[in-house]
Design a protein that fits this description.
The protein has four helices and nine strands. It is an alpha+beta fold. The strands form two sheets. The chain has a six-stranded antiparallel sheet. Strands 4-6-7 form a three-stranded antiparallel sheet. A hairpin with a 4-residue loop joins strand 1 and strand 2.
């Protein structure tokens, strides 16, 4: 159910690690809990995030939720198309990246969950 190439957080974000960069989004589980997503607020490029820091908000017909950075790094890209059409998250949460982070040397992703661990968490 959850793509094996992604890592996951207990806050229901996913992260795709690619060398010194990472893309971040929310999981299908998070999207289902939120319901229909209608608004997305993301940070400016250049912002430096600490692991666990709030980087934006996502609003659905049910609630407004904070988005947490799964790992520290500098925001190098924001998915402006997703901000303009946040409802895309409803149909493709694992394909709808929100931000790209440049990871510092020695960034530690050991606390992230693999797909099996995340599946267990969401049962």
């Amino acid at each position: 159910m959850y793509p094996s190439e992604l890592k996951y957080t207990k806050d229901h974000e996913w992260i795709r690690l690619d060398g010194a960069e990472a893309r971040v989004g929310i999981t299908e589980y998070a999207q289902k809990q939120l319901g229909d997503v209608v608004f997305l607020e993301l940070p400016e490029v250049g912002r430096v995030l600490e692991k666990g820091e709030v980087f934006g908000t996502i609003e659905s017909v049910k609630a407004v939720s904070e988005l947490f950075s799964p790992i520290g790094g500098e925001v190098t890209a924001v998915n402006k198309a997703l901000v303009e059409r946040p409802e895309t998250v409803n149909s493709d949460p694992h394909g709808s990246w929100m931000i790209t982070l440049k990871l510092p040397a020695g960034a530690n992703a050991s606390e992230l969950l693999d797909a099996g661990q995340y599946t267990e968490l969401t049962r």
